[in-house]
Write a structure and sequence with these properties.
Length: 1048
């Protein structure tokens, strides 16, 4: 695919002027210089065509490397067949031959003006080059225009001096061809593909890299790609991810020719750079046009097929007691010791569990130097870790290079075996030409992944691996960040030296800390290629299986964990593996298999009673996923607890307390007393998570929310960040339960589509249930309906989480007016919970929910019976929240004076509660207001309803606020419930002043700007603080939120 020359007007004007001079009898010498692919030959062809049109005779020659051994080969080709020179041999009389050839040229000139065109003179033999120089000195007396093209490009291996270096500048007109500009390249693309969109065009321009040669070759290949959408006239082909998808292959062939032209040393550096670039973190595309899509938005698939895409992460630590601190652009430094981090996968969602590692936890179990070690460990002064060379911690060490990895000159030079000074020059030159572009971190990268792939095409895999190993070793010696080293190791075979394993394990720590389980998996898989002892391999397989599970690869996770189970290990590591494998199996619904794994492990723990109790606690917790298994396990727990409670240990006894609470057998006070006593006892570290998680759940039910929160955070902090554990899920669920009890809907709202392992689960989770109820409470009825419909409960496995979601869906259906559907969900929830002996209203108060549905449908007696039973069970547990809720519904079901008395008791119970019961109190006030309104006590009813509205607004309970407003309107109130607090309650003047204050303006500046009195500004800000419920000026930006729609 060819076309008119672009951005070559100056060169064409120069050639045209020199042509006219030759026609007038005055010769000249024009040298066209440029890098490979910039269009030297095309420009020379244009000059030939113009000269022919102007009546000049054209003599042409194209030099090639094959003719360098033949003296004057280029001149002989130029002047045509010359019989006298057929026997010319190397070493002959070049001077005499040159003189005869000059006379021949003069004879041609006597016949008329000449254009002598020599292409690629840098490939000419030395006698030909000397002849041309000598001719250039004499051309001014002849009607001869000599036009020569010469490659001018920076190479790793210095090339001979240019043709005109020994020539006076007055004798030559030199023109250097610049790279093709983006605008001109874009025009070429649009001419070839008129339907191309701006982003697709921009990506083609980048792949062309400022080279007309590469751009035309790419467009040739794209013309052979099948069109989408049946070949619509305005469609463009998708830009392929690799050169293998290009046909007929003009683009990779052009890149190969470009590399060959540069010489083997330069080609080696270019390919090493392409290989090393694959190991660099992927960053934002500096091109403002974004990824390539065509007119129909076909995505450009350019992922790196090998290794994890890694961004700047937290700084790693190499001492066993050092935590991992967060850093904006830091990466861990490769050290001699194993990495330790207290990283968390906060907000990740693993298998519907909200993240395998959502709490803090230390990645322990590894040996390493002390945290303040001088070599291979934590450097207190610098806040980083010192990188040790391949020799290990006793070898020489170097501090962190501030330029790593943004300045990869030394790294690239070592990998390619080239001179660093020449490599630096080459990188600068290629960036200037457009083949390389600096990313946001300052690293030079190929202008487009397709160009990088073309550079790598045909390079043998062993050579790539050798380059990556050399780069890894060089980076390590220079104190490179641990992941910068590990990413190179991902692309090498086993190194077989201790430093490689240490680096990979440190990289796992950093990836876990930064919530990148997929990256950690890649590092661990590579670590397993190194020579390992069986016990270490067992530990790494356990970690790998846990991380693969977090990355939504449950089948691979189970296979890894099963393999780890069959390797030799000490009892504690055997228990960790069994618990992780049991957790993965149970989450996939294979609860029987999970229990078999735990039982087999328990049978191998003779002489380790503490570990045995840990396995039993894990089995009890996992049994919640299956009704029959749960009944069997808790039957054994109850029987054993009655005979010999010490056999169960503290975790097992805590599980019995939890069972008694849900079965309606004990009060909250008794439960907390027993749990606190168990927490005070010494216990095994492996069993502690089960005790803490169970105690946190009981404390949350008992409305000891602060204590529950402390237990949750303590439990999450103790979680191993790279080990799958069932209590991780339980602790995160309790955290969500605490937020729900406090009415913190913002923390519970769904953040987006389910992804990762969560999306692979067929059933909803407890946090899905809370998210659904949060949507209902915040008045997002339609969104709540869509969220609920996203789950097919017919396919959901039997679990306690399904029961909670059934209750939440009942709430959603009731809010949407589907009372019959809500009744069905509440009854099904109650049936399933009763089968599990979960009868207490502390978990799912389904009886009061059914009673309200019955009342709406006219079933008063059945509602009364259900509400009465709920109150009885609530008084067994005896917390204000459960008792107040039951009293509210019983009062509504009872009606009359007794109903009013019960409603008053409900309000008093909830109002006097020592904890925040705002949501329940709002509903109680609303119910009491309605009953008072029905009894004709409008004044008291309005007071209660206004209080309910104020509480609902404070909690962000939009639905309850709307219900309170409707009830107030029904009462005839002149001023129904409206927002009195929050950013939506601000007047226009208040918001304008608040925004200026939030932007940093002083009161005096605001007064001057708005032409107000300073006192007026202060009054408005005082009112604003009250409405926003803030106390400081610094809280304004967060409290204001976005401007409400419709306001200016």
């Amino acid at each position: 695919m060819t076309g008119p020359l672009r951005e070559r007007d100056d060169a064409q004007a120069l050639l045209a002027a020199e042509t006219e001079r030759a026609r007038a009898g005055t010769g000249g010498f024009v040298l066209l210089r440029g890098a490979t692919g910039t269009g030297r030959t095309a420009l020379l062809e244009s000059a030939v065509e113009h000269a022919t049109h102007r009546g000049l005779r054209v003599l042409r020659a194209r030099c090639s490397p094959e003719d360098t051994s033949v003296p004057l080969a280029a001149i002989l080709q130029l002047l045509g067949p010359v019989p006298d020179f057929t026997d010319l041999a190397p070493g002959g009389d070049d001077r005499g031959s040159a003189a005869r050839l000059w006379r021949l040229l003069r004879s041609y000139a006597d016949e008329g003006p000449l254009l002598v065109a020599v292409d690629d003179v840098h490939l000419a033999d030395d006698p030909s080059r000397r002849w041309l120089l000598e001719a250039a000195r004499r051309l001014d007396r002849l009607p001869v225009l000599l036009v020569v093209t010469e490659r001018s490009q920076y190479d790793i291996e210095p090339r001979p001096a240019g043709l005109t270096q020994a020539l006076s500048p007055s004798l030559v007109r030199t023109h250097t061809l610049a790279p093709l500009g983006d605008a001109a390249a874009a025009r070429i693309v649009r001419e070839a593909f008129p339907g191309a969109g701006p982003r697709w065009t921009a990506q083609c321009v980048r792949a062309g890299a400022g080279s007309p040669l590469l751009l035309h070759a790419l467009l040739d290949d794209l013309g052979g790609v099948p069109y989408p959408h049946g070949g619509a006239a305005d469609a463009v082909p998708p830009l392929p991810a690799t050169c293998a998808e290009l046909y007929p292959g003009s683009y990779p062939a052009a890149v190969s020719w470009w590399l060959n032209s540069a010489g083997p040393e330069t080609a080696d550096v270019a390919r090493c750079l392409a290989a090393l670039e694959q190991a660099w973190p992927t960053g934002p595309d500096p091109d403002p046009t974004g990824p390539a899509t065509g007119a129909t938005d076909h995505p450009t698939a350019t992922p790196d097929p090998v290794g994890p895409p890694v961004g700047g992460g937290a700084e790693g630590r190499t001492g066993p007691s050092a935590g991992a601190g967060a850093g904006a652009d830091n990466d861990a430094v490769a050290g001699a010791g194993s990495g330790v981090g207290d990283g968390v996968f906060v907000g990740a969602d693993a298998a519907g569990q909200g993240g395998l590692f959502a709490g803090g936890g230390i990645l322990g179990g590894r040996s390493g130097p002390p945290a303040d070690a001088d070599a291979g460990g934590r450097d207190r002064a610098s806040g980083g870790a010192v990188a040790c060379g391949p020799g290990g911690p006793d070898g020489p060490s170097a501090g962190v290079d501030p330029g790593d990895p943004g300045d990869p000159v030394d790294l690239l030079a070592e990998a390619a075996g080239a001179d660093p000074a020449r490599v630096a020059g080459w990188l600068a030159a290629m960036t200037r030409l457009g083949l390389l572009r600096r990313d946001a971190s300052g690293r030079p990268r190929y202008a487009h992944p397709l160009l990088r792939d073309a550079v790598l095409t045909g390079w043998p895999r062993p050579r790539r691996e050798a380059a990556h190993r050399a780069a890894a070793e060089a980076s390590l010696r220079r104190g490179g960040r641990v992941e910068a080293v590990a990413r190179h190791l991902l692309r090498t075979p086993a190194v077989g030296l201790p430093w490689a394993l240490r680096v990979l394990r440190d990289a796992v720590t950093v990836a876990v800390h930064d919530a990148r389980p997929a990256d950690a998996v890649a590092y661990l898989r590579r670590a397993l290629d190194e020579p390992l002892a069986d016990d270490l391999r067992q530990r790494l397989l356990t970690e790998l299986g846990s991380l693969e599970y977090a990355s939504a690869d449950a089948p691979a996770a189970i296979a890894r964990l099963a393999e780890a189970q069959h390797l030799p290990a000490d009892p504690r590591n055997r228990v960790r593996t069994a618990v992780a494998l049991g957790t993965a199996l149970a989450a996939r619904g294979e609860i029987r298999t999970a229990m078999d794994v735990l039982r087999r492990t328990e049978g191998r723990l003779a002489g380790h009673p503490g570990l045995t109790r840990t396995v039993q606690a894990a089995g009890a917790l996992l049994s919640d996923e299956d009704l029959a298994t749960r009944q069997e396990v808790y039957r054994w727990l109850c029987e054993t607890g009655e005979r010999s409670p010490e056999v169960l240990g503290t975790a097992g006894q805590a599980l019995l307390v939890r069972y008694g609470a849900t079965a309606g057998l004990i009060s909250a006070r008794e439960a907390m007393a027993r749990v606190r006593a168990l927490l005070a006892q010494p216990g095994d570290p492996l069993a502690e998570p089960f005790l803490l998680g169970t105690a946190a759940a009981v404390a949350q039910w008992a409305d000891e929310l602060d204590e529950a929160e402390r237990l949750v955070e303590r439990g999450l902090a103790g979680q191993h960040p790279a080990l799958l554990h069932p209590m991780q899920h339980a602790l995160l669920n309790t955290r969500a339960d605490i937020a729900a009890a406090r009415g913190d809907h913002a923390r519970l709202l769904p953040g987006g589509p389910r992804t990762g392992a969560a999306a692979s689960r067929t059933g909803p989770t407890n946090r899905d249930a809370h998210a659904l109820m949060a949507l209902v409470h915040t008045g997002r009825t339609e969104a709540a309906g869509r969220f609920a419909d996203a789950f097919d409960l017919r396919r959901a496995p039997e679990s306690w989480e399904l029961n909670r979601f059934l209750y939440a869906r009942g709430v959603q259906r009731a809010a949407a007016g589907d009372t019959v559907g809500a009744l069905h969900d509440f009854l099904e929830c109650g049936r399933r919970q009763a089968a599990r002996d979960v009868v207490s209203p502390v978990v799912t108060p389904w009886r009061t929910a059914v009673a309200e549905c019955r009342l709406a449908l006219g079933g008063g007696q059945e509602a009364l019976a259900l509400a009465t039973e709920e109150l009885r069970l609530a008084r067994v547990w005896n917390t204000p929240r459960t008792v107040g809720r039951a009293l509210r519904v019983l009062g509504t079901a009872t009606g009359g004076r007794r109903g009013l008395k019960l409603a008053e008791d409900a309000v008093r119970t909830l109002r006097d509660a020592p904890v925040d019961t705002g949501m329940e109190l709002t509903e109680a006030l609303l119910a009491q207001g309605r009953q008072l309104l029905a009894a004709g006590e409008r004044g008291r009813a309005r007071d209660r309803l206004r209080e309910a509205a104020e509480l609902a607004e404070r909690k962000g309970a939009v639905r309850l606020l709307a219900l309170a407003g409707q009830a107030l309107r029904d009462s005839g109130a002149r001023s129904p419930a409206t927002a009195q607090t929050g950013s939506g309650a601000l007047t226009g003047s208040e918001r304008r002043i608040a925004e200026l204050a939030a932007a940093g303006r002083t009161n005096t500046e605001i007064a001057d700007l708005l032409h107000l009195a300073r006192r007026t500004v202060e009054t408005h800000l005082t009112s604003t603080y009250r409405k926003l419920r803030i106390r400081r000026r610094t809280e304004l930006p967060a409290a204001l939120g976005p401007r409400p729609p419709g306001r200016t």
